[in-house]
Amino acid sequence: MSTSTQYQQLTAKPAEVAAMLGYKDTKTVYGLIRTGKIRARKVGNTFLVNLSSVRKFAGEE
Question: Domain range spanning residue 49?
Answer without folding.
Answer: 11-57
